[in-house]
Design brief:
- There is one protein chain.
- Helix 4 (73-83) links the parallel strand 3 (62-69) and strand 4 (90-94).
- The two termini are 20 Å apart.
- This protein is an alpha/beta fold.
- The protein is globular and about 40 Å long.
- It has helices spanning 21-31, 42-49, 51-58, 73-83, 97-107, 125-130, 137-150, 160-170, 197-203, 212-215, 220-235; strands at residues 12-15, 37-40, 62-69, 90-94, 113-117, 155-157, 175-178, 207-210.
- The protein has an eight-stranded parallel barrel with strand order 1-2-3-4-5-6-7-8, surrounded by eight helices.
- Helix 4 runs parallel beside helix 5, helix 7 (137-150) packs across helix 8 (160-170) and helix 9 (197-203) runs parallel beside helix 11.
- It has a single domain, classed as TIM Barrel.
- Helices cover 45% and strands 16% of the residues.
- It has eleven helices and eight strands.
- Bound molecules: the ligand O=c1ccn([C@@H]2O[C@H](COP(=O)(O)O)[C@@H](O)[C@H]2O)c(=O)[nH]1.
- The ligand O=c1ccn([C@@H]2O[C@H](COP(=O)(O)O)[C@@H](O)[C@H]2O)c(=O)[nH]1 is lined by residues 15, 17, 41, 66, 117, 120-121, 157, 179, 189, 191, 209-213.
- It catalyses: orotidine 5'-phosphate + H(+) = UMP + CO2.
- The active site is at 66 (for ompdecase activity), 68 (for ompdecase activity), 68 (proton donor), 71 (for ompdecase activity).
- Homodimer.
- One of its GO terms (biological process) is 'de novo' pyrimidine nucleobase biosynthetic process.
Length: 236
């Protein structure tokens, strides 16, 4: 979706990183209309959370399934075919050419959009080096973004630190989805490449993924509303 077509409220994606479906349902009820887009990742999916995708879609919410698929092409393709029936908007795969190619082919015209995870936002150059990579973060993110674009991937998961450079490479054809968002004063945790919501939007991010700063806040709804206000202000 072109950035100008994205409803401002949809730009905040809250990660439902919670231990049970009951806890997730309670969080969604608490957040009410302050949040329109949710992410379901490992913790909730493996706690029986995938049926929530349809449930949330039936409530008019959008859902991002963040399972970061990476396997042989055939297995990725069959997994994507199953996931495409759940009613989600986004699905992540790791940005390896075989994986991205299989996912794009398998999603077909289902309406599910494939996002390629470039380099996890908890990694810095030292982490890549320790994992055996020759390239640093910015070079690897850019190389993977170029491969993803050639393969017809719909969007990229990157840090907001890379958003401006990636926008120049991929234009507006691909959505930039950025975790590593930290409102001023909030704990960094294990994230290494971070920005505030306002700076991320100014850098060109389309969607901001926020987990702990919302779901672990004393008042999650107030935390989400504050981020929504920051996004609106940054959009001008
Ligand atoms: O590179 C990546 C890819 C995915 N994530 C996911 O986003 C949220 C961020 O949660 P916070 O609590 O706001 O740190 C989490 O679900 C990650 O799995 C990411 O952080 N970085």
């Amino acid at each position: 979706m072109q950035p100008s077509e994205i409803i401002p409220r949809d730009r905040l994606i809250v990660a439902l990183d919670l231990a049970s479906v009951t806890a997730a349902e309670a969080m969604v009820a608490r957040l009410g209309d302050s949040v329109t887009f949710y992410k379901i990742g490992y913790q909730l999916a493996y706690a029986g959370g995938l049926p929530l995708v349809r449930q949330l879609a039936d409530q008019g919410k959008k859902v991002f399934i963040d399972l970061k698929l990476h396997d042989i092409g055939n297995t990725v393709a069959r997994g994507v075919e199953s996931i495409a029936k759940l009613g989600a908007t986004f699905l992540t795969v790791h940005a390896y050419p075989q994986t991205m190619k299989a996912a794009v082919e398998a999603r077909g015209g289902s309406g599910l959009k494939i996002l390629a995870v470039t380099v996890l936002t908890s990694y810095d150059d030292g982490d890549l080096h320790a994992a055996g990579y020759r390239l640093g973060v910015s070079d690897l993110v850019e190389a993977r973004a170029q491969q993803a674009q050639v393969l017809g991937v719909d969007g990229l998961v990157c840090s907001p630190e890379e958003a401006a450079a990636l926008r120049k490479i991929v234009g507006h054809q691909m959505n930039l989805v950025t975790p590593g968002i930290r409102p001023a004063g909030s704990a960094t945790g294990d994230q290494k490449r971070i920005m505030t919501p306002a700076r991320a939007i100014a850098a060109g991010a389309d969607y901001l993924v926020v987990g702990r700063p919302v779901v672990e806040a004393g008042d999650p709804r107030a935390a989400a509303e504050a981020i929504q206000a920051e996004i609106r202000q940054a959009l001008g």
